[in-house]
Amino acid sequence: MELHKKIAITRKSIGLTQEKLADLTNITVRTIQRIESGKSSPRTFTIKIIAEALGTTFEQLTHESQNHDSLKESTIPEIISDLENEKHFLKILCLSCFGYLVIPLVHFLIPIYLLKKSGSYNTQTIAFGRSVIRQQIYWGITLSFSLLLALAYNFIVVTYFKEFYLLHYLWIFFIMYILNALLITVSFLRIKTINF
């Protein structure tokens, strides 16, 4: 297998983006892109830095495999399968957020549990999962704060004004529940755009 393909496959198999590899090696993203596309032939020093960042050796990257076809046939489907598994997991994680319909203020514990149990080492999967969990925590805080504001408003209106209009708590629940359903749906749809 050609060097540039080995670098790209190895990088994807450990869940690194080109940007992250560039950060780890102090090589520009453009150079990484040119190396992986085969437009640029890296020097020995550059290959050694990339190999170290990928957790492999110079020899493993540069050695032309004798089982060239079997390596290509077995590695690429495994990587594609792993990426599909990561996307499938993220979809389940997003759908688990609908637990707010049953347990609204602590439902974020379900995706936290799923993320910990997944055992995924893919940095993008972990980052996306954490962002979904943060979003759900913020939603819970916003719901609680909105209900407290409604309570304060109703208390002030009843105490100090003779003509009053009380704010009904169910309106807040309905609005916040619909908003969270939209947030979860947007996160679910964003999974398709993730490039591992």
TrEMBL record:
**SUPFAM superfamilies for the chain:** lambda repressor-like DNA-binding domains
Entry's transmembrane regions: 89-115, 136-156, 168-189
Tell me which Pfam families the record gives.
HTH_3
Keywords attached to this entry: DNA-binding, Membrane, Transmembrane, Transmembrane helix
Note whether Cell inner membrane occurs among the keywords.
no
Q: Which InterPro entries match?
A: Cro/C1-type_HTH, Lambda_DNA-bd_dom_sf
Q: Which GO terms describe its molecular function?
A: DNA binding
Q: Where does the record place the HTH cro/C1-type domain?
A: 7-61
Which protein, by its recorded name, is this?
Answer: Helix-turn-helix
What does UniProt list as this organism's lineage? Answer: Bacteria, Pseudomonadati, Bacteroidota, Sphingobacteriia, Sphingobacteriales
